[in-house]
Amino acid sequence: MKPLQSDSVIPLYHQLKERLKQSIDSGDWKPGDQIPSEHQLMNDYNVSRNTAKKAIEELVQDGLLYRIQGKGTFVAKPKLMQQSLMGLYSFSKGFKEKGMVPNDVIIDIREVKPTPEIMEELQVTGDEQVIEMKRLRCVDDDPYILESSFIPKRVVPNIEPLKRVGETSLYDLLEEEFNVVVSRAREAFEPVLIRSDESQYLKTEAGKPALLLERTAFDTSGRPVEFCRSIVRGDRCRFYTELT
Fold first, then answer.
1. CATH topology (fold) of 12-75
2. CA pair distance 52, 10, nearest whole angstrom
3. Does the domain formed by 81-240 have CATH 3.40.1410.10?
4. Mean pLDDT for the chain overall
5. How would residue 168 be classed by pLDDT, with cut points 50, 70 and 90?
6. pTM of the model
7. Could you give the count of Cα atoms lying within 13 Å of 92 in the half-sphere of its Cβ?
């Protein structure tokens, strides 16, 4: 095993981090494999505990490793989704283009009374009903997003076609069944921790990092037709943009 360069301007923890990352990138360590303990890394690379700990912590923060208390540190699955924010996008279409099999599991579809936030986003009154569609978005049966879409009843007078979401995308269905074309959307992101009730659907531990994504979609006339709240698993998804 090639030793680290103690006389290098590159800190030892960063050198060790890159060595560990190389083992992941090369496939020597596969998703689910347990990596050497801090004590073993100290002996293998002749570094201090703080150096080994910091290298591992940064890889955990980067989403390449994860810890299980009392058991050790393991290689994480690669990011399932890497989505650009440069334009209007569809999760389902994006996965299909990559040869993956998206699958939406509809948990519930019902009429609900809008909250003040939903009233503001959808520009409806408290007397109007909205349709709430709660679904779990999966790829190859691996859950990655827990999503609730709110649609004005005037946009979707008949909820029966919504049961086909999963066979086709929501926006395609709105166009085919209700002549509603989504032309743009406004989104906001916020880091959150997964709650215990959400963890049961997402098959992960409560307290894990996630993104709260809120989207308001508009039709060609500028009318809001959907308000969506999504809990996106931070260990399986990554969003990016380009700056010019």
1. Arc Repressor Mutant, subunit A (1.10.10)
2. 15
3. yes
4. 87
5. confident
6. 0.69
7. 14
